[in-house]
């Protein structure tokens, strides 16, 4: 929802989840209180959301009365909210265009959290970003160190051992 996006402050509030269950969209709040959170937007998505908001406003004017002012961020040219499967297809198309390996959006979440964790961001911050109440859950389920991360650990031990 646009009400969860503060373009001026550059933040996104996580307040609602939308999933496709047996072909129908189901909306509900996050699983836990920690799931409700306000995240600062990194610069690229912040800029993209600003541009998309302007484009959406132009589409609303062009469509006139038939445009549904649903308040959702991802909508079609008549303002109707996308179903989650459309979002997934759009993401896959972007991956194809960028010539990157196709991964599920949920796998991208794992990759993002692993990147943050292995880039020196404190575990408590990574867990808060994910909206998890249990720090050990984030580390156990979402953080996937690879051989390069283990190589960095070996290099640190080299420094220690001289």
Describe this protein with a few key phrases.
162 residues, alpha+beta, hpI Integrase, Chain A, 2 domains, three-stranded antiparallel β-sheet, two-stranded antiparallel ribbon, 6 helices
Describe the structure.
- The chain is 49% helix and 12% strand.
- It is built from six helices and five strands; from the N terminus they run E-E-E-E-E-H-H-H-H-H-H.
- The longest helix has 21 residues, at 43-63.
- The model has no long low-confidence stretch (mean pLDDT 89).
Furnish the topology, listing elements before pairings.
Elements: E1 5-6, E2 11-14, E3 17-21, E4 24-28, E5 37-40, H1 43-63, H2 84-97, H3 105-118, H4 123-130, H5 135-142, H6 147-161
Antiparallel strand pairs: 1-2, 2-5, 3-4
Mean pLDDT: 89
Indicate the percent of residues in helices: 40-55%
Low-confidence stretches: none
How is the biggest beta sheet arranged?
Answer: 3 strands, antiparallel
Structural class: alpha+beta
User: What's the architecture of the largest domain, going by CATH?
Assistant: Orthogonal Bundle
Q: If helices are DSSP runs of H or I spanning 4 or more residues, what is the number of helices?
A: 6
Could you tell me the strand content as a percent range?
5-15%
Q: Any idea what the shape is?
A: elongated
Please give the alpha-carbon distance between the first and last residues. 54 Å
Rg is 19 Å
CATH topology annotation of the largest domain = hpI Integrase, Chain A
Give the topology string: H per helix, E per strand.
Answer: EEEEEHHHHHH
**What strand order characterises the main sheet?**
1-2-5
Tally of extended strands? 5
């Amino acid at each position: 929802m646009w009400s969860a996006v503060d373009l001026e402050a550059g933040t996104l509030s996580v307040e609602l989840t939308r999933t496709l269950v047996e072909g129908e969209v189901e909306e509900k709040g996050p699983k836990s209180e920690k799931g409700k959170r306000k995240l600062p937007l990194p610069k690229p998505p912040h800029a993209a959301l600003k541009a998309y908001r302007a484009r959406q406003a132009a589409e609303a004017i062009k469509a006139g009365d038939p445009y549904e002012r649903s308040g959702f961020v991802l909508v079609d040219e008549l303002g109707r909210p996308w179903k989650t499967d459309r979002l997934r297809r759009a993401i896959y198309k972007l991956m194809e265009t960028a010539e990157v390996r196709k991964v599920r959006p949920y796998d991208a979440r794992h990759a993002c959290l692993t990147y943050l964790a292995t880039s020196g961001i404190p575990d408590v911050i990574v867990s808060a970003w994910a909206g998890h109440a249990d720090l050990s859950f984030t580390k156990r389920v979402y953080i996937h160190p690879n051989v390069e991360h283990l190589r960095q650990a070996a290099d640190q031990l080299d420094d220690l051992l001289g």
